[in-house]
């Protein structure tokens, strides 16, 4: 009888990995989590499905079109499209049970029904950290977050990256001083400078009725190139008296000072007056992170300061600062760039114990002892000849095999085979365990 | 201006935790993962959303009504309701890229729009391990999985639990020998014995036109109570010649033998002839796990052997054995039973460094060094008096605080305060680091 076979396949825009890649992916996620935790961030986990009226409380925007929204029974549901909105809801909902500043990390999948294209996923992991204050939050937090990101990228072996820092108050104060009225539109335009270049930005500004003088000043501002000290000096020399501008420059100076204190290397961060993160809700410090050799990849980690996280859910004033690594995208970009080590094993197993005669019980006992010593161990349980069993180890990339026949059982000396070097030894179990320590 | 405030709330049937519980929950998940990995299982992660035609290929059943199913664009989508169907799809889809036996674990959220009731969640974590063979799979694997579960429950500090083992071939061979025709219905009835008792089972069997003699034999069978050896002897003494029965008894004997070899304590597993997992697709070994003192909780970890995992997606024969821990439910049950340690801290932080004068840079530097030594460290970055800062540590349950004023900076001797004992010392940073090792 032939059953009806459904072709096994995934929806477009959804990623899943084969074992070798999955192990690398999980290793990256573990590193991110470990650094977040080493800085004392609290884990948080919220449902992937929430009430649409809650998730979409802010309303409007490009995001809303991408939402996976549906009904079940009487409920209007949506899948979360980021981890920031659930954080806002969580903090407002549990306000009285939390201690502030509330410092949490959350690593989880989010969903956006974007147009399917290379490197864009409809389900992807975000790895967020945020610090939320009750009414107030020191700007030193704004320096701490990129410092944590610095530690993570170092852990991931990415040394040639740069964290770009700016402050929205500086930009908007600068616009204010120029007498620009349609700030949002101008912000949107200069936000594109990395993609379209300064000349096109200037043309677009002209189209928006910005004066020649202002355009030249904006061009000089967003083209500024120099050290952090030089950037701060440049800003001061603009002699702008706008209150927001002065505050922004002070904050920027503090963030630079404390990033150094937190141990970020000077080659890994820079004031960048052209970054604005135009369409986001940031109100102070903003961050982006680029790979030095691959600027075309764009920002691999962004974030910033927001004045009021949960304004849709509470009248309390909850300023915060947050930063997010889009891990699914980062993984796929690093893989495409060839920056992930190739030829990874498809296994976590360190030792495969292989019975070559009727020695299964003995093999299982050896494996138990290896595991007691925290050595990742498998026993080959299937029938077959030794070649078949070694082939299994070889295909997965298991580095070590212990062969156990009657002779090994009698002598207590096991045949220990190292796949990488091809070496083979006769060793007692204790000697083998010592080799792993 | 008053903004429109949306009341922050979750959908019924969705769980989220406050920090102290979340930390305990994650600790349990880490333990499960670590044991799975120590046995060399490969991590796997599949999308939460799949094509409905794929996820529902099997069709029918109670589950289908519970599915979160919706359209997006032209696509008919469903949220996964378990991790077994995605595993079947994954293995069939990537057949040629995988090495068999394929041993994977997967920890992830699944979705079932069940009627909302206490202890039942619509989004919950499952922690699955399965071993899939290509055409064949040794029954020793059936013994390995409950042994891994044994290790996990020991790690979780649950010592008084019992893994119940049976074999579907034994049951169906027994029915065959009795000449019972509507086996599925009888299976469904005896599956309820723990809930309704033997007398009601007998009554229901009678309603289903089972003969008096057969009912008595079935009652004796499902009421059997004795050691594993006694159970195997009991089965042999039935003198049933049905091939499936004999095979089942042999398998059961092997599973018992190898569970001992894998190190499972005799008080933690038992042959239990009444468990059938009636409505599932199991064909051989079946497992359930109960807490000795809380039988009313039911099975906290179940699984079994299936002949053909991916029959809806491929004509290849892929026998497997799997077991699953429903972590969300387990956590909530253990919490309700008071079996989780209470009064847990709401933090992972081991040390809070507190500037008591203008010593922020110094404090940050100390924190950097503590983290370099893998000590989870936070600096209190906000303004305020010492009491406010200590209150923060106290509320979160941070055990240690380092106070740094001008005096400490000058002398290099820091004030190290232990919250649990109230002790306070003057120590150098090196001495503090040593205390944590």
Question: Kindly state the mean pLDDT of chain A as a whole number?
Answer: 94
Protein chain pair with the most extensive contact, residues per chain:
A-B, 100 and 100 residues
SS summary, helix count of chain A: 16
Biggest beta sheet summary of chain A: 8 strands, mixed
Query: Whole-Å distance between the termini of chain A?
Result: 55 Å
Enumerate the strands of the largest sheet of chain A in spatial order, edge to edge or round the barrel: 1-5-6-11-10-9-7-8
CATH superfamily of the domain at 351-435 in chain A: Anticodon-binding domain
Using the alpha-carbon principal axes, give the shape of chain A. Answer: elongated
Strand content of chain A: 15-25%
Number of strands of chain A: 16
User: What is the CATH first-level class name of the domain at 351-435 in chain A?
Assistant: Alpha Beta
Rg from alpha-carbon coordinates of chain A: 28 Å
Oligomer: homodimer
CATH architecture name of the domain at 351-435 in chain A: 3-Layer(aba) Sandwich
Q: Note poorly predicted spans of chain A.
A: none
CATH fold naming of the domain at 351-435 in chain A: Rossmann fold
Which percent range fits the helix content of chain A?
A: 40-55%
Query: Structural class given helices, strands, pairing of chain A?
Result: alpha+beta
